[in-house]
Specification:
18 helices; elongated; single chain; disordered C terminus; mainly alpha; 451 residues
Amino acid sequence: MSDIRHSLLRRDALSAAKEVLYHLDIYFSSQLQSAPLPMVDKGPAELLEEFLFQVPKERGAPPKRLNSLQELQLLEIMCNYFQEQTKDSVRQIIFSSLFSPQGNKADDSRMALLGKLVSMAVAVCRVPVLECAAFWLQRTPAVYCVRLARALVDDYCNLVPGSIQTLKQIFSASPRFCCQFITAVTALYDLSSDDLIPPSDLLELIVSWIFEDPRLILITFLNTPIAANLPIGFLELTPLTGLIRWCVKAPLAYKRKKKASLSNGHPPGKIAKESASGEDRDCHQLYSKLHLSVLQVLMMLQGHLTEKNLYGRLGLVPFDHVVPLVEEINRLSDELNPLNASKEIELALDRLAQALQVAMASGALLCTRDDLRTVCSRLPHNNLLQLVISGPVQQPTHGALPPGFYPHIHTPPLGYPAHAAHPALPAHPALPAHPVQTFIPGMTFPYRPIR
């Protein structure tokens, strides 16, 4: 690698970057013939950092800088390389070696260039780059995935008004990337503060994708070899948990945002108030559509989990994530005066109850009713939630029931005593026997339809 480095030092920045990609292509193509998952050696990694991310090798040397035009040309070189490389395995290992965080000073340059590369790939619809980015999101710690999601949201939702339509069009080009992007976005915008409520354009985009085909949420899960124990600190297999959080917390989060705007001492004018009210109304309708789609996806899961032999072994809605969600709902309910936010609290708890019930019935949520009772005990009273956490009566006289089947009989909600049994009613006196009508074959029956 030292000979290659000396030859690269004599080149300008762009031709050196292009030459590095060429040598890496040859190196990893030969490595893949002997090992399915080759390791990135120190030499190639150092070449990448020095000639693509402009991190000087000599300690104390000033960092190199590309001007805007050179940076754009570098992005074009990289886009063209991934577009022209026909072997998917080579593309994936090159992309991973370029952008996998190493925990060093090159990571900031690495993430900045990755955000610009994926943004360009969205703009010019470079599907190979988007597919590589989807796998990168799946295999990289969530803190870095959130940074990429924020860069794309800034570019397509905040920087240029109306550019969200460009992002919307990649739905048919790379559904896998769309699925991973939704997962990263729901991790970024958790509605814990007013700044972390998803922008309305982004919300509309995601709802339109999912409402058009709810199976989009499951693409990564359905196309990935899965172990029962998932790694900690990475994005989840599906965005289900994040989307449930959005739907459940949205009524309370928007109410909190409205309350904060009224209490800052500067009440909005009539026109601004009407505009904000109309925008909130549109967002609430979007969350309702999203909630319906999420429930539909949860109902599909039982069959998919059974096919993968993961039913009862893998919780796609982890109970460990339900606990903080319930705590956040409880905190928001206390923060908002229940007298002024009763409708919002009721809606949030209704959605929570529906999601919990369907997730448990489909095998996506692995917990007992006792676990739910303990977690939900401090929430405000809600009839539907009480029915869910009370659970169905399991009748021992029935034979083995299929997974997820519950008899439609429920125990009384918590806090309400069971009714005492009624006394037996007296027997009725025997009625006189009616004469038996003799059947006469061949006799016509006068029938006239009711009009």
